[in-house]
Write a structure and sequence with these properties.
The complex is a heterotrimer of chains A (about 290), B (about 325) and C (about 280). By secondary structure, chain B is mainly alpha-helical. Chain B contains 14 helices and no strands. In chain B, helix 5 packs antiparallel against helix 11, helix 5 runs parallel beside helix 13 and helix 10 crosses helix 11. In chain C, helix 5 packs across helix 6, helix 8 runs parallel beside helix 9 and helix 9 packs across helix 10. Chain C starts with a helix and ends in a 5-residue tail after the last helix. The chains are: A alpha/beta (about 290), B mainly alpha (about 325), C mainly alpha (about 280).
Chain lengths: ~290, ~325, ~280
């Protein structure tokens, strides 16, 4: 069984429209799966559902999420949180808001190790220092004693990556981890995440709208449109022979690194109409 | 450097405010129609008495000279002499100050505990019936002032279920070994828990009456900013680490949410201290406020002046402390 | 979300109407007190002292809420006491509002030295305990209805001035004010025509709240025996008397207290209800 196995997951606004439409996807141990789609396609919602942090205005209407063999949605909330905290972690999008301004860096990395996993404080601190060094932060001991506002955005994102890997989780959800950063820093952070993933053998669910990123980091890929998975494929196949017309159009719309002057091809209206019709047909089938 | 400058500015405005208070008190008492000396004396006093008193209080001099004499005295710690008891005002006032301070602090603690609990419970079970109930209770508590809560408490816990004392500060027949005015602290220090319990049984209702409106304000404000904080990214991140909702609120949200509440609580705490005047009267609690009302009824003007100035000093001091506390608790200000 | 909001609105509407009903009844009772009150509020009868309310054994017919230690009818005294309370609420509330709102408006819109002066005064006023300040003023001026009203105005104007100053400042920074000025309107004209209508809802809400506060201040001053002449019934005076005989005749305290409680609650709920009505975000 896959480490993460999502089966027929539907999520919607309470008494509102659907946000995810029977999404199914698997992530094997040590595998990297990309989730792509335009904003509002529901790719972040999948990561949030897996980590149990869906906003209160949203509810799961059907489906199962198996994490490490147990169905998260059948567990009591407190039990679910402990399970998620023990085996999964999040690399958040915006490093500037994801660290608590009133706590020092050290405790924000070690808290899970001590409180949830029951490590001793000394062991947790040694581990944190080790990881800070691994994400190439100079003078880790000083950084541990710093407050977030004393550090740059790139530094903070490194810290959040270190913190995500600290407990050796089996799965990490990276929610557009480079979008909020400077272009110059983006590449370094991406390389860092890829390297850490390979070294630690962690499964990664990588949410992004950037196909360039996908080609560098991911092995598998799910393409979403309006909460519907329109293509579930391997990255190699996707870039050579996309099956769904929307995927093909998306690929054509992405500037090539090899030929940046080739110009952008916006997704044609006909393709958008077709994929919208697909979503409508899905909804009709569900309700009618 | 910036912090030091801010503190200096703050101290300067405080000094200006206190000077203003001195002027206003002085003006209210001397310039408003009515002869203060006539008020001080019992009916049937002779012309001679009036002249003697007038000279004694320097009232035969010009208004500015009088003000000068009074301020010069105050600066040296001489607030004059009480007319009714003939004792130095400063001595009387400082004798009652501990009782009022203990009552105010007790009330503040109650308000923080009650208001904090309401905010935490309302945040933990937000969006449902529990939060709605907390809101209704807060609204009620806020609409009705301490004076009325005091009366309601007297009926509830003094008459209906008589568990607390409705008047006084301590049972006078008890053996009182106190050397300071801080009975509540000293009884703990001397390990006299019987006395401590007796003091609390006297203090409970007046303190609670003072605390209820402030608790409602704390509850409302803190809940609001907690709810806002609970949507922030670092709180979401903490949830993924495996913490329960209550621990997330306490560990991640509370400290940051408490900062905006703190400044408002400072102003509100001065209102609470102002409320001790009537609450002490209501519960016959022997503090400054009760003494102030007696002083007014007995037309003891030097004593009134002294008490009002002392209250003003306490108010401005509280505001100052809150500002400093805010600076200490906010890491961005501390290192910025 | 939609449901919650309409529920909140319905609740807000309900409390608005409940408050208005209670205050309306109170006004009518106070206005027609001599005809409404079953007894003469001042008539003493020592043989009928401390009669309990009608449902308790030992009650005397006609004395619905019992009598105090001097045999005076509690219900009639509450009704007559309402006259003083509401008069103080109305006159003191409006006068405080006029003074405070004017100063706040001038300070917030004109800024400069006017603002400095008003703000300094507000700071100084905030350093006084209000209850002590009012008692002090009454002591100096002598008891009486007008002293109470004057004391409330002198002390509470800052409540209006602080809020209106901030609002006027916020409004003054908006574009429509600048365009009115560009269109050739004078400073005072701009203030009265452009700013005033926009801060008026806040003024009305504050006025309602202030009326509730005035009722309480009057009660507190009567409680410490500094209100109007001691003969006339006041709620605070009744409460003071009830407080001393609480173990013998609870009703002397309870009924005026309930009346005062509901009145203060009604004024503040009315204010809160109006605030919600005026607030475009909640609407």
């Amino acid at each position: 069984m896959s480490f993460l196995d999502i089966r027929g997951l539907s999520v919607r606004l309470k008494k509102g429209p659907a946000l995810l439409r029977r999404v199914s996807l698997q992530v094997q141990a040590a595998e990297v799966r990309g989730l792509v789609g335009e904003s509002g396609a529901g790719k972040s919602m999948i990561g949030k559902a897996v980590l149990g942090i869906l906003p209160p205005s949203v509810e799961v209407s059907e489906g199962e999420i198996f994490l490490d063999g147990v169905d998260l949605l059948r567990m009591a909330p407190s039990e679910r949180r402990r399970k998620i905290g023990a085996v999964a972690a999040l690399i958040p999008q915006d490093p500037l808001t994801a660290l608590n301004p009133s706590h020092r860096i050290g405790p924000q990395i070690t808290d899970r190790l001590v409180d949830i996993l029951g490590w001793t404080r000394a062991r947790a601190e040694a581990r944190a220092l080790e990881l800070l060094a691994e994400v190439q932060i100079p003078d880790p001991a000083r950084v541990m004693r710093s407050y977030p506002h004393e550090l740059s955005g790139g530094m903070r994102q490194r810290i959040l990556i270190a913190s995500a890997f600290a407990a050796e989780p089996k799965l990490i959800v990276a929610d557009e981890p480079t979008t909020a950063l400077d272009v110059t820093v983006q590449k370094q952070i991406l390389r860092l995440i890829a390297g850490m993933q390979a070294r630690h053998g962690t499964a990664l669910l990588f949410v992004t709208h950037d196909l360039g990123v996908v080609s560098k980091v991911c092995q598998k890929l799910s393409v979403l449109y309006s909460g519907l998975v329109v293509e579930d494929t391997s990255v190699a196949e996707f870039f050579t022979a996309p099956r769904h017309p929307y995927s093909a159009a998306l690929l054509a719309a992405t500037p090539k690194y090899t030929d940046p002057l080739a110009g952008l091809n916006p997704v044609p209206d006909a393709v958008i109409d077709a994929v919208r019709a697909e979503v409508a047909a899905f909804d009709r089938m569900r309700h009618g | 450097m910036r912090v030091l400058q801010a503190i200096l500015v703050r101290l300067f405005t405080t000094a200006v405010t206190l000077a203003g208070v001195a002027v206003v008190v002085f003006v209210v008492i001397r310039v408003v129609p009515g002869n203060p000396i006539a008020m001080m004396l019992p009916p049937g006093a002779t012309e001679e008495d009036v002249a003697r008193l007038t000279a004694l209080y320097g009232l035969d001099k010009g208004l500015w000279a009088q003000f000068g004499i009074w301020v010069a005295g105050v600066v040296q710690g001489d607030f004059g002499t009480s007319i009714t008891t003939k004792a130095p005002v400063l001595e009387l006032v400082l004798g009652r100050l501990p009782a009022t301070l203990e009552l105010s602090i007790m009330a503040l603690v109650m308000a923080v505990v009650l208001g904090g609990a309401a905010a935490l419970v309302g945040t933990r079970w937000r969006g449902g019936r529990v939060e709605a109930s907390v809101d209704v209770a807060n609204g009620m508590a806020l609409s009705v002032p301490d004076f009325l809560w005091g009366l309601v408490l007297i009926l509830l816990f003094g008459v209906l279920v008589p568990v607390f004392h409705i008047s006084g500060r301590v049972t006078p027949s008890l053996d009182l070994p106190f050397t300071t005015g801080f009975y509540l602290f000293e009884s703990l220090f001397r390990l006299r828990f019987d006395l401590w319990a007796d003091l609390v049984a006297h203090m409970f209702m007046p303190a609670l009456a003072l605390a209820i409106p402030l608790a409602a304000i704390i509850g409302q404000l803190l809940k609001q900013s907690l709810k806002e904080t609970m949507n922030l990214d670092y709180v979401t991140l903490a949830r993924t680490k495996g913490y329960g909702e209550f621990r997330v609120i306490l560990r991640e949200a509370l400290r940051n949410a408490a900062l905006p509440t703190l400044t408002l609580v400072g102003v509100q705490f001065t209102f609470l201290i102002g409320g001790t005047v009537i609450i002490e009267r209501l519960f016959s609690y022997e503090g400054l406020g009760n003494m102030a009302i007696d002083a007014v009824i007995n037309r003891d003007l030097p004593l009134i002046q002294g008490i009002v100035v002392l209250f003003a000093v306490i108010f401005t001091a509280v505001n100052l402390v809150v500002d400093l506390l805010y600076a200490v608790l906010n890491p961005r200000l501390r290192h910025g | 979300m939609v449901d919650g909001r309409s529920l909140t609105r319905r609740r807000a509407g309900a409390r608005l109407w409940l408050s208005l009903t209670w205050l309306g009844l109170l006004c009518l009772a106070a206005l027609f007190a001599p005809w409404v009150a079953p007894k003469d509020p001042l008539a003493q009868d020592l043989f009928l002292g401390r009669l309990p309310p009608f449902w308790v054994t030992g009650a005397e017919p006609g004395y619905y809420l019992g009598t105090d230690s001097l045999g005076r009818d509690v219900l009639s005294r509450i009704i007559h006491g309402g006259r003083v309370a509401l008069m103080v609420a109305l006159i003191a509330g409006v006068a405080t509002c006029l003074l405070g709102a004017t100063l706040g408006l001038l300070a917030g819109f004109l800024r400069g030295w006017v603002d400095m002066l008003v703000s300094r005064f507000i700071d100084i006023w905030m350093a006084f305990p209000p209850v002590l300040f009012s008692i002090l003023l009454i002591a100096v001026m002598g008891p009486g209805l007008w002293s109470i009203i004057l004391a409330i105005v002198v002390i509470d104007w800052t409540r209006f001035a602080r809020v209106i100053r901030a609002e006027a400042m916020a409004q003054g920074a908006m574009d429509y004010v600048a365009s009115a000025r560009v269109a050739g309107r004078g400073r005072l004209g701009t203030m009265v025509r452009e700013i005033l209508p926009n801060v008026l809802p806040t003024v009305v809400v504050l006025l309602t709240l202030e009326m509730g506060i005035a009722v309480i201040v009057e009660a507190i001053l009567s409680f410490v025996n500094l209100s109007i002449s001691t003969d006339d019934p006041t709620w605070g005076g009744m409460i003071a008397e009830g407080r001393t005989s609480i173990h013998q005749a609870w009703w002397v305290l309870v009924f005026p207290l309930i009346t005062l409680f509901l009145t203060v609650l009604a004024f503040s709920q009315l204010g809160e209800g109006l605030k919600d009505r005026f607030d475009p975000v909640l609407r």
